Task: structure prediction
Amino acid sequence: MNSKPDDPQGRAGLAASAPNLKLIGTHAFLFAWATIFLLPLVWMFITAFTHPESITKVPPDLLGRNYTLMNFKDLFSHSEILRWLLNSTLISLAVTFFHLFFDSLAGYAFARKDFPGKTILFWSIISLMMIPGQVIIVPLYLMMSKLHLLDSLWAVILPGLAGPFGIFLMKQYMEGLPRDLEDAARMDGCSEAGIYRHIILPLSKPVLGALGIFTFITYWNAFLWPLIVLNSASHYTLPVGLATLQSKQVLDYGLLMAGAVVAAVPMMIIFFAFQGFFVKGIRMGALKG
Result:
């Protein structure tokens, strides 16, 4: 019998198609997974623009819904949402600024300077990450009461001036920065403040962007601490204010979803505006590790 000759090109085609099939399967899985996670977000937006009569239909009518802006009109006319939005913006921006400033200063000191007790002090700060936030609520409340800051935005801002996670993140990132530029700047007579401002901060933009996103989103969504220290409706943050809309016998789901949309849009804008810094910071951190 005559044996069939080998087909190198056929084997090469099969070998090339195998990775393609694997890539297609991976993309299909990720697309399905992303769709599952995006469904609640899509449902929130659809419900926010749906007439209340169409929201409560059973089974839900997905195609013949009566879309309207009534929920947003009721939200802005029957609540202080603009004030809540302003309060949340002021608190989140202020805390983010102070976090970036103080955390970067501490990270610079721990990463580039030598001083007595440096290691002990650093690990003491890192150990604070293991303490649940609920444990320090009572001492913080008493402190704000002694300072006569209850029911003010400062009661929310002051406890968040710095954080152990931000100090750790900045320190780990700055340790990988080259020291040649610092040495050259010192030889030219540049001060430590000048080195920090003109060399360290520009080189740390990726990690500053990532930390800024984490901090802004965390304090934008903060609920428990503002609920405890803020008593006046005019001082409420957006999450606390939206929670007061639920104090009714019958829940207005359209109104609640409209409020959720208003709360979600700024976070989405911040993330997409700074996602380049976020991705670069995570990637560089992973490569360093």
In short: The chain has two domains: 15-48, 79-288. The chain has 14 helices and no strands. Residues 285-289 have pLDDT under 50 and may be disordered.
